[in-house]
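As described in the Methods, two query proteins were run sequentially through the folding procedure within a single session, without resetting any intermediate state between them. The first query and its resulting structure tokens are shown here.
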Amino acid sequence: MKTFFKFLAIVVIFVSFTLVSFDSYADDFIEDVESMSVSAENQENINFEIFSKCAIVYERNSKQILYDKNIHEKVPMASTTKIMTCILILENCDLESIISVSQTAASTIGSRLGLSVNDSISINDLLYGLMLCSGNDAAVCLAEACSGSVDDFAILMNSKATELGLSSTNFVTPHGLDNDNHFTTAYDFAILTDYAIQNPLFKQIVGTKYCNVSINGTTKQIHNTNELLGSISGVYGVKTGYTSKAGRCLVSAVARNNLDIIVIVFGADTKNIRNSDSIKLINYVFSNYEAFDIKTLILDKYSEYQSYYLPYCSINKSFDSLETHLQDFDIEFFPVKKSDSRISFASLTTFDLDSPVEPGHVVGIIDVWVDNSKIYSVNIYSSAYIKRKDAIDYILFFFLQYKNFYTL
């Protein structure tokens, strides 16, 4: 009987430990979006409460912040860490390489792809296991394949963070399990996510709902833990996360009607809150903002400048004519409140010019205004060197004038 109770006690302890470990470190599993407390209806004002600890809406094309809550507060980010892991592997590794799973990787706790020691798998399949089912074992495999060890990979992660200007971020692991020195901010992660999405392969991976991976030549189907993907219009990624310290985290990317936003919520208490907060923010932006066509407005104003100003522009102490070009700009659309887009115009500022004028000199500025606020500016540059008149130029000018006088 004593033996039985000892065995029972061991079982209880084991099960309890397993449940605690699972609850503390497991990533998200599929949850029916229809069961969430917020439907995908219009949210016409900002009079709603976001329950997550931190939240941001970042518009990718214009780099504008459309909503913020504690966006510079340092917090743990759980498995959203894998956004950095994924982009580093894409930039530094051969995706077709086949690697053998180490003991360290195979024994990693939390959400898993399901790898065992000495399993063979490609780096490409590991990336899908990393970003879809949030495999911590896959994260360690990739870190070791790229840098030799988790510690050395963390150095690479922090180097990339510095390169991107993520001044309030520090990485310790490739998977995001709780560590006091592993943290970021919602703002920093918006910048990181925007950078990562620019890579077409990254965008393809995080936008995949289901796929098959091959482990030791055997096919295994995996699915994406992101419930919003395929359920909310325009969502094309990016990553879920959960630990007991970080709470529920979600990084979403959504594109509709020429607006492309990143929505981040960190520190939600439940999966429902995490998803409902994200949907509230998505609905708020697309109900209240529209993509304002600043490119057409700028080009129209520049055409007006070329037709009505440039032919009559004179440069002090020079006989040359001014040639110009417009500054390159990669923003075609700018998010503005729908009520404000009707009050918009472009203004032109020109400058008196003295010779000589070097190529690249700013000769004018086009400003775009919405609701009496300047939202964007583009420079007009000189395209050719304009020299200053010297004595010979005056003599030649006098000679030509004299010649023309007697020709008449």
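Immediately afterward, the second query was submitted; its sequence and tokens are:
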Amino acid sequence: MAEPTGSEGPLLSTLADGVLRLTINRPDRRNAMSWEVIEGLERAMVAARDDPAVRVVILAGSGDKAFCSGADLEAMHGDGPEGPGFLETHESRGRLASLFEAMWGLGKPTVARVQGWAMAGGFGLALACDLVVASDRARFGAPEINVGLWPFMITVPLIRSMAPKAALELMLTGRVVEADEGQRLGFVTRVVPHGELDAAVDDLSATLAAKSPAVMRLGRQSFYAVADMAAPEALAHLHAMLTLTNQTEDAAEGITAFLEKRPPQWRGR
């Protein structure tokens, strides 16, 4: 039974068996992101980072139609005499980058549960997660070019999730991608029938939650660190991390459990 950790509002959270589920709760707006949603997600990621009870984070959207349709342009529009000024609006747009950085610095695996539309910033939000499990009804796209904009802020999660030229083609054309093609391009981890989505997400999350929290943190941090390094620097970093990881109690326990033919008992250190 999930333990409620947040009240009804634009962002819901439940925690059960080491798995924190964060749900954007704006189905009437196709779960479009407001400033409140972005800030709430970032706060939740920071809190999850420091909470030993959280081992995995699932990111979801409420309802059956959309994971997240992107930014709520009406709510975020900064022009006009009663709205925020240009500079404040410019600085606010950096909040999505802060959210992505909080997700990548979480130290714990993240899974996007995509049941429908994941568009524009919602596409980037899904791909900022480590893994993406999608319903066969899921659709992905960066359609900003069609309204005279460009998906600047989601460029990094896109090119970290597929070949850069594949990402560029999606940004240049604004076309919508079905889940099967997303899997072929490399940014969808698994596609399942719509009715099996929750079971697939829960199964994957349970698998991840059963791993060593200490080794998961160190290994995942190394993955993102070397993504932006040249090969010589990356190899040096990984060499050091190999030695560091082998000094953890969980590494010793894992080897001992393997030799003794029993399940390991992780301590997260």
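The longest strand covers residues 11-16. We note this only descriptively and draw no conclusion about the first query from it.
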